[in-house]
Specification:
Low-confidence stretches: none
Strand content: under 5%
Shape: globular
Order of helices and strands: HHHHHHHH
Number of strands: 0
CATH superfamily: NusB-like
Number of domains: 1
Mean pLDDT: 93
Structural class: mainly alpha
């Protein structure tokens, strides 16, 4: 059975995807409307398992820090840049980098959750690339803490 945080991360990825799509197509939205729209589309039992506070933290954290997150990703994306990734992949990697940089979530949990999402929603090549980027960010963080 998926944990509440696992479900919340998956829903966060979906919302970030939607926001990135709206931005790409110059569609007006509010974050609250996008969240509400997603919540309306899911079963009540699943909705009860979503950690709304954590969902809002992740969404607003990614959007508020997107330039720093993209800069960090760009440092380790070899022969890629974040804009070349699909919108789903952008949502996954940005959410995971946000967690690694700005939350107290254990780093290995953030990385594992991102890898599981990428295995479900991306191809193997992108999943490995996301894993490599997150691993390098994690090790950079460890080096800085010593």
């Amino acid at each position: 059975m998926k944990t509440s945080r696992t479900i919340t991360r998956e829903k966060t990825m979906t919302i970030l995807y939607q926001i990135f799509l709206y931005n790409k197509n110059n569609i007006k939205y509010t974050i609250e409307e996008v969240i509400e729209e997603m919540l309306e589309d899911i079963e009540i039992e699943e909705r009860k398992r979503i950690d709304i506070e954590f969902l809002n933290l992740l969404i607003n954290g990614v959007l508020d820090n997107i330039d720093k997150i993209d800069e960090k990703a760009g440092k380790y994306l070899e022969n890629w840049n974040i804009e070349r990734l699909g919108l789903t992949d952008q949502a996954i990697i940005r959410m995971a980098i946000y967690e690694l940089m700005y939350t107290k979530t254990p780093p290995l949990v953030s990385i594992n959750e991102a890898i599981e999402l990428s295995k479900k929603y991306s191809d193997e090549k992108v999943s490995k690339m996301i894993n490599g980027v997150l691993d390098k960010i994690y090790h950079e963080r460890l080096d800085n803490e010593q």
